[in-house]
Amino acid sequence: MIGGFSWRRLLVLLRKEFVQILGNRQVLYILLFPPIVQVTILGYALNPLIKHLTFAVVDESKSPASRDLIEAFSANGVFVPQGADGDAAGVYRAVQSGAVDAGLVIPADYAAEITRGAPGDVQLIFDGVNSYVANLGAGYASAIVQQYNARGEPPQPLSPEITFAYDPGLLTAWFFVPGLLGSVLMMTGLLASASASVREKDEGTLEQLLMTPASSLEVLLAKIGPLFVLFTIAMWASLLLSRLIFGLPFRGNPSLFIGISSIYIVAAISIGILISTFVATQQQVVLISMFTALPLMMLSGAFAPVESMPPFWQAFSLINPLRHYITIARDILLKGAGLDVIWPNVLALVAFAFVAIWIGATRYRSQLR
Amino acid sequence: MNLRRVWVQCTKELVEFRRDGLTVALAFALPVAMLLIFGFAIRLQIKNIPVAVVDFDRSAFSRDFISRIDASQELVAIVEPLDRSPTALLDSGGVRAAVVIPPGTQRALAAGRAAPIQSLVDATDVVNALTIKQILTATISFVGATYAPASAPPTVALHERIWFNPGDNEALFIVPGVYAVILAIFPTLLAAIVMVRDKERGTIVAAYASRLRASELIAGKCLALVGIGLAEALAIMVIGFAVWGVRFAGDPTPLLIGTPLMICCQVLLGLLVGAATNTVTSAIQAAGSINSLVSFLLSGFLYPVSTMPPVFRWFSYFVPARHYINVSRDAFVRGAGWPGVWSELLTLASIASMLALGAWLRMRRMQMAD
After folding, report:
1. What is the CATH architecture assignment of B49-147?
2. What is this structure's pTM?
3. CATH number listed for the domain at residues A53-150
4. Do A130 and B304 touch (CB under 8 A)?
């Protein structure tokens, strides 16, 4: 580095970067609004709880007992019955062609078996093409039958009393918003900073910039500045909207959350700058940025649980800043946790941001050679 | 439309693509790498969720209960000392649920007296919470039945079967979906960049000044990019077969027609975005981040489309990946063929023509934006 660190130079550089970003309205809008809209809209749209599963049903027993069972299946809205053409083969065909999600076959001797005092056998087939839906559906069906069997019996002495903590209303938006917020900030921050930095290289202005007495660190911090401000605004707007629309709670310490989010945004921007030092053209930077951002997003616990991933990928996700940020955001917002619980994640995040900036600054000057 | 000019435009794009060796490598290596990462790492079925058990009873019943929980794939029991409160256990973040077995539970059971077992479940992850509830309820009633006085046999014996994926191999659910997501992301990105790069460098002026028409420009670029996309599709499907043994379950023709249609949709979307934006940064935001998030989350790749609010279900009709995912899952898992998916192919074709019209309307003046 030449001439050490100078605040005055940093301010001048910051001004240049701000003018560059603010000068292009299209870039400004496209960096600011999509993140906000994505967090709120997707938070509203995504629903992992299955409902309205259509099931073809054939009732060969045609008895009060079998109608009662079908009634029990369709009572809570998870399963929606659809008449099938006549026999069990019709139900199999409907499942086979993907026209329904499940098929229920009640055999002719169902009512007779029950009057005999034996359990009445019924068959429930799921379309396993979507194994997620099929497995959850099978779980629901078992629970429905378990309840159905318990009707009229004296209450079991052993009664599970289950209470839901933190999100007693089971609002899925509360689960998705922290994950979406982290994902969108990572994706947009990384892509925007990577493409802006490569552009400087593409247009040849990078050489001019590096010929000035400014140190790499100053150039880098100035690059981070305007994007940091933009994404901080986007983050606050998303949180505010989520609070208004979904009633997202804010149970923890707000200043702690602000501080950690700032570190996270810097980390996301730094990854983009780091990527830009490895490539030469816009096309390459876009491909690599997407390739980096999407796995970071999908392997973070934002959508699919980390605990379900194979052990290797779980260990791998420890170097994913998004995973730590999502854990922190859920802990602070929903659980009201403090530093005493989340410090390992905070530490990982800080370490990550430092390493990214440090390598970025080291590589930034050398990339011309 | 002059076919020769279309062809020239197409070969020009391919030559330009081939000259950039690193981009060629990336265009193939990245989709394959992404397939491998997602195919191995993304799993939705919950596994090994830690559940704290505070056991005041220390009886045969409570030991049975704990080992039964451990035997399930979904939960792992962690026995905690008696002085930990359920709330504190959940707050510390180590476990997702806490079960308290009060003293004298087994004796109460044998005597037929009420024996409530309290559990606190962390509901930050709603699906996890509901699954934990289901398993705890089932386990409690199963283990309880062996210690309580005998009761009447159940009315209904439910026999559940899951078709098409009898081994419950989750890769068979994830991998055909990843195909759709990859084909939604990479061809769009390449197309958007091809379009906007010409503009940013100013070389588009040469095309504007020539006799080339907008329809020929779009058709030529589209042809070249669909060709590249098809090569990517072939690469990932071969890897999918080699690694997870994902093979055709039935008639492959819907997939053979659906794949070019899907790529065509995504390439045209990329060209349209490229035509509508002026800088690479904006184009990437639109074609990259918005398109990929939508393709991931509103296509039914992870969570089914049927559970979304109605507005989004309608919107998802315009997401090509939603239709292609059904084609792909049918071809590789269900095997119903044409009767099951003809409507999806028709929709893909309509989306492609709408996008082509949009790109043409945007480009037809062949002039710089004001």
Report:
1. 3-Layer(aba) Sandwich (3.40)
2. 0.86
3. 3.40.1710.10
4. yes
